[in-house]
Records
---
Amino acid sequence: MARIIVLGAIKGGVGKSVSTYNLAYSLKKLGKNVLVVDFDRSANITRCVVGDIKTVAVSIGDLMMNQMDEEEQPNPAECIISRNGVDFIPSSKVLSAVDTKLRLEMGAEKIWHVFWSR
Ligand SMILES: Nc1ncnc2c1ncn2[C@@H]1O[C@H](COP(=O)(O)OP(=O)(O)O)[C@@H](O)[C@H]1O
Ligand SMILES: [Mg+2]
């Protein structure tokens, strides 16, 4: 069964990105399949993986936007980047737009629920 581990904190510079990256590869070393989803607008993990975030084709922000607009989601192969055995869904600036849209939507908490229960 899949487990979701969230590393989050409002404060910056406390080690979220570094811990996530190290945890991902440590779990991989223990034989687990790992998917890292970068939900941080600063996209530091994404930069570690792809270099220039402008090269990201489909980010977690795009997937969330699609979900809210009830549009079809892309194939997983189009949004998952594999690096040395660990899979990543990158972040991008689109997350800022998602944030704004979520705040404006009625029943935004429902959207989160639908997104995560897929
Ligand atoms: N365990 C640690 N020991 C030493 N330095 C660390 C440790 N964890 C993080 N850092 C350093 O602290 C800084 C902030 O870490 P980062 O993971 O980017 O924080 P956040 O994602 O919470 O903003 C980075 O320069 C990182 O290399
Ligand atoms: Mg970070």
Note: The chain has one domain: 33-117.
---
Amino acid sequence: MISASELDARDPLSGFRDRFVHNSNEPELIYLDGNSLGRQPRAAADVLARVVDQEWGERLIRGWNEGWLDIAEGVGDLIGELLGAQPGEVTLAENTSVCLYKAVVAALRERSSRRKVVTDDENFPSDIQILRSACRSAGSDQTVEIVETSAATDPTGALLDAIDESTAVVSLSHVAYRSGRRWNLKAVNRAAEQAGALVVWDFSHSVGAIPIDVAVEGVDVAVGCTYKYLNGGPGAPAFIYVSSQQSALSNPISGWFGSKKPFDFDYQSPPAEGIQRFLTGTPHVVSAALVQPGIELLLEAGMDNVYKKSVRLTERFIDLCDKHLAKFSFEIATPRDPASRGSHIAVIQAQAQAIGLALINEQSVIPDFRPPDLLRFGFAPLYIGFADVDATVKRIVDVVEGGGIDRWKDNAPLVP
Ligand SMILES: Cc1ncc(COP(=O)(O)O)c(C=O)c1O
């Protein structure tokens, strides 16, 4: 195995680490939760000062004509560059849950003669809640079928078997939030298209971690978070992508910002064209502005480079887990084929919660815990290096051999 220091020295992305804020009081911290909340880009503080002090403080209401009106679609176009979308196909809006609701109700109304929404048990629970409420709202007696892919030996086969002529919508997380398993976009899109169904993707755990080309992969509709690998900040607005070829899809929550002329103050104003029609009310200007710096870093680094490094970091982590942790009953729950995973590795261990707490509180490593027995280690390639991977595995061994499980087994997690 090549040494971590040699790999870090050769890493073309190593300079990006310093473009993020690191707390000098915690120099040993290894932050492996960027798949939940990404680190703060250094540039974010300048953006915040500009928006608050100058644009709001000095320009006041004039700010709307000086950039705020278009901010959701402007930042959306930058996300579109990461996704291979055309300008005018992506906008920021609300949060992932609401964007998903809008997209799925729109799709269900387009396929109102069909009864079924297909998803899987690896999807994010909130997404399944949203699918159910979308069915209730669409008003055509549609129901959600949850395929149990988590236990299937052939998840793709199990999913595709469920897609038929009664399927209106297929909705999946591109990368599963627990296992990190990744769907083949093209295979699912093709099967759905052949059956006449629309696919609504959740890119929350793939955007900014994996190169995606919506045009090449035939993606019609997608939503996703910006606070994970895009490093947009806590509670940052989500995004929605609707292919320009799906112009018949309409926003079920229409409001003034989604209409052609919001400032005519005319409740009969027709919907805007393009992705603007999926807006509803006033954009979240301050948090939208904070999404931009993280995307710019990814565009500068290049998604192919980011992905190459993600594969090498996750491969190294899996190898070291096999070598040093398998004997302590750690089991890798993420696919070993890099083409079938995202940028986090899930590890199952009966005492995962206690180990996670010991790592956070004694070892300056932040992973996250998902009940009942899963730890997730997220490798955000712009600020995680190869030495971090080695040190993490060493610190896990120190926890297990040093009695950390006993010290933390009766504690509840501080942050869920
Ligand atoms: C895959 C996935 N979808 C949706 C969400 C929910 O996003 P929001 O709270 O922005 O609606 C999350 C949150 O972590 C997620 O991981």
Note: The chain has 13 helices and 13 strands.
